[in-house]
Amino acid sequence: MITKPETKFDLEAIRNEFPILNQKVNGQDLVYFDNAATSQKPKKVIQAIQDYYQNINANIHRGVHKLSQLATDAYEASRKTLQEHLNARFAHEIIFTTGASQGVNLVARAWGGKFLKSGDIILVSGMEHHSNIVPWQIIAQEKGAEVLPIPILESGELDLEAFHELLKKNPVLVAVNHVSNALGTINPVKEIIKLSHEKGALVLVDGAQSLPHMKIDVQDLNADFYVVSGHKAYGPTGSGALYGKEDLLKEMNPYMGGGEMISEVKFSGSTWADLPHKFEAGTPHIEGGIVLGKAIDWMNEIGLEEISRHENELLIYAQSKLNELEGFRPIGQAKNKASVLSFLMEGVHPYDLGMILDQLGIAVRTGHHCAQPVMDSYKIPGTIRASFAVYNTKAEIDRFVQGVQQACEMLR
Amino acid sequence: MESIQEIQEEIVDDFALFEDWMGKYNHLIDLGKDLPEIDDAYKTDDHLIKGCQSRVWLHADMKGEKIHFSADSDAIITKGIISLLIRPLNHRSPDEILNADMGFVDEIGLKEHLSPTRANGLVSMIKQMKTYALAFKAKSL
User: Fold this and answer.
1) Nearest CA in chain A to B115
2) Which CATH number fits domain A11-32+303-411: 3.50.50.60, 3.30.365.10, 3.40.50.1460, 3.90.1150.10?
3) What is the share, in percent, of chain A residues with pLDDT greater than 90?
4) Where exactly are the structural domains of chain A?
5) In chain A, which among 364-383 make CB contacts under 8 A with chain B?
6) Which of B76, B113, B115 sits opposite A349 (nearest CB)?
7) Topology given in CATH for the domain delimited by B4-140
8) Would you call B54 and A351 a contact, using CB atoms and an 8 Å cutoff?
9) For A93-120, what is the mean pLDDT?
10) Sign of CA dihedral A50, A260, A76, A17
11) What pLDDT, on the 0 to 100 scale, is given for residue B115?
12) Model confidence at A2, in pLDDT bands (50, 70, 90)?
């Protein structure tokens, strides 16, 4: 019997994969805790970008020549990687995008543009970032539809009772994130999808924050649409994917025209290519698409369970250390959380704290995290957000907590 | 009364006393704390400066021939920065404000610590002060 070799989680080896971490910022060793905004990239990803341009760069799906075939094969192999990683039924259910935002916009435009009617209701969770709110508002305004928020509780969890009530209004679509970028809450999307489907509503899940932290199974979730972003999951910026159920994608009209998305073009009328090319107009971000697959391979080599176990340890450690500081107020304390720690320090503006931490070489995010409605629901202008990735360490958290303490002493 | 340039030089000299960033920031925080309070009536949305990451309110009054500025921010370092700008420009004529070269901020050695978004906020503050001066000048013509 062949058994999988035991892999040991080797943090030092992982850190060595990230050359950018090995630098000084303002004279201090960089501590990078802004991973929910974008993650750093391992050598394997950086090297793959170079390899692409050095060895196989050519336009895809259109040349008979060797390089075009190599580039096309690599691009389609990456689609297959994404299909397997998300457990989609077919590779053609994976549409390459520039990121989660484009994925949501594509569905809002291509599905909403065709099927949304005046008076229809779209439910959007109150903890969405703007990318999963505004595209719905734009299409709803055009169609005379309405976008209603699902409220959130003080704990940072969705108010499921209120959601039950809202479902009685028979929404046509529910848009919700798997993991909140502002609070770290992991939403019970499987349950939300089941309840929505019972009422005949489709569900789009925004997986921008979930891809780097957990195993995603779109069939088990029964998601209708699932969008992911590459750059938050160790991949290149401008890479991402939309998963959509085959029958839904087939019914939708193209979102953009041009390039290989056609079957036939005539001035009397054009016809569209089959999936997935129907939604991939123009020359895509070829290297981004290819390397996104490499980033996913890289995560799988470490193992998502190991990644999430390590990040969870960091989260618990950071929270317990910060708890010892006077005036620490965590924002969002859901039972199920990914590695995002949003908080305030009493009497200190998040922006001031962020500036001092920057001087100490520590990168965090301050502000509303492009999720203003979340901040409004807590009646705060913003928070300080530390978000952890697989390469972060407890020693970095110690420096961070010390930095917060020092900053508070200066600022109070 | 000292000239705008003299006050600017004083500010630059003050900052030169501090060798490290922490000294400079502590000084900035002190300046922020010392900034005279703005009348609450002016802490309204139409007094907010766009382009700042924290909220900054700026109000200007014409007293005789001179403009009087008051400002506030919910972030203390931002308050310190705006106090640096108000000190040389307060109680000046619209023309003096419009003609003032505010490049001294670069010499403080703070700009290297200001990220583009913060530096943009600084530019917005200066622009807003000059906009007030222009408005008062237009009114008096």
Assistant:
1) A355
2) 3.90.1150.10
3) 87
4) 11-32+303-411, 47-301
5) 366-367, 381
6) B76
7) Sufe protein. Chain: A (3.90.1010)
8) yes
9) 98
10) positive
11) 58
12) low
